[in-house]
Model the fold of this input.
Amino acid sequence: MFERKLSLALAILVPLATACSTHQTRDYAPGKIPTPESDERIVTVTRTSGELVEFDREVDGRPAVRAWIDGETVMGPVNGEAVRVKLSETSSVSIEETRVAVGRTLLAVSGMAVVTFFGIALASW
Done:
């Protein structure tokens, strides 16, 4: 009985966890960078020389300070050290956006409920 409940809970929670939020990375030209909001994070900066500067996401298992734009400079931690990159030296800035997808979450929950209902009906038949 416990195994059946556990498998049912996993069958519902796994698709639900993936349906709740999405991560999408967009590249912006230096003159067209929107101001990052709380659900967005500057991930990388590509210099005109082709060098890719990746900002830290974690430091010692904790979330790192987010990179930010200060005037004409992108500042953030790289390997635990503060790095500044002038926007005039960049070809693109990549910003990761996290969106909560309520409609997709409701669809996933409804679909899993229907599958569970029919699964239980077939098992008891």
Q: What stands out?
A: The mean pLDDT is 80. The radius of gyration is 21 Å. Residues 2-112 form one domain. Residues 102-124 form the longest helix (23 residues).
